[in-house]
Amino acid sequence: MALIKLAYRQIITASSAGEFEKKVFEATYQEFLLKSQTYNPFGKYKTFTELKAHDGRANSLHYKMSFAAGHFITMLDNYIPNLKDNLGKSIKFELPQFELIESAIDNLYVHQVAIIYTTGTLTLINQLGEFMILAEGDISKLTAASTFILKMQQNLSIVSYQETEEPDLKELNGIKYE
């Protein structure tokens, strides 16, 4: 068994179809157009990459644009969009992180953002090929727990891993067995 945290990276582009994605896309693009003017007063630079190369302070746009997406992320009620277990149940996240991948002041279709959702602590009980048997929280001291199965997939990663001691079957929940 191991205690893990997962991170899921959701990339949002002009072709993203969901309502959440469309709202985040539009809000962050408008925010990019507004906030990028600080680092580009004469409109000389067209892309986020050019802005960063010209003025390293443009890296703060990741943070500044997260406010435009924050309201929509809050509405997710801590459930990761598009990530479900094998029964179709949504997976909860604890921490979202916003990332501006690229954008352009003159081309809406260049705009790309990502939201990285990090889960709370999960117990990795076992792994069967690309499927993980998981439980919420640290269950290493319990004899039984609710579990779910999640398939490893693109944009999903284990970002924290800590081995746990296997439970001593001679003593469970404070009761000694001989």
Give a structural overview.
With 178 residues, the protein is α+β, with helices and mostly antiparallel strands. The protein has one domain. The protein has three helices and eleven strands. Strands 1, 4, 5, 6, 7, 8 and 9 form a seven-stranded antiparallel β-sheet that branches. Strands 2-3 form a two-stranded antiparallel sheet. Strands 10-11 form a two-stranded antiparallel sheet. Helix 1 (19-35) runs antiparallel to helix 3 (61-74). The longest helix is centred in the N-terminal third of the chain and has 17 residues, at 19-35. The chain is elongated, with a radius of gyration of 21 Å.
Number of domains: 1
Structural class: alpha+beta
The number of E-state strands comes to: 11
* Major beta sheet summary: 7 strands, antiparallel
Q: Please, what is the average pLDDT?
A: 92
End-to-end CA span: 24 Å
- Over the alpha carbons, how many angstroms does the gyration radius reach? 21 Å
Helical content (DSSP H or I, runs of 4+)? 10-25%
Percent strand equals 35-45%
Low-confidence stretches: none
Net shape: elongated
N-to-C SSE string, H for helix and E for strand: EHHHEEEEEEEEEE
SS element count, helices: 3
Short description:
The chain has 178 residues and is of the alpha+beta class. It has 3 helices and 11 strands, in the order βαααββββββββββ.
Q: How are the elements arranged and paired?
A:
Layout: E1 2-12, H1 19-35, H2 48-54, H3 61-74, E2 79-84, E3 90-92, E4 95-102, E5 112-118, E6 122-128, E7 131-136, E8 148-151, E9 156-163, E10 171-172, E11 175-176
Antiparallel strand pairs: 1-5, 1-6, 1-9, 2-3, 4-5, 6-7, 7-8, 10-11
Helix pairs in contact: 1-3
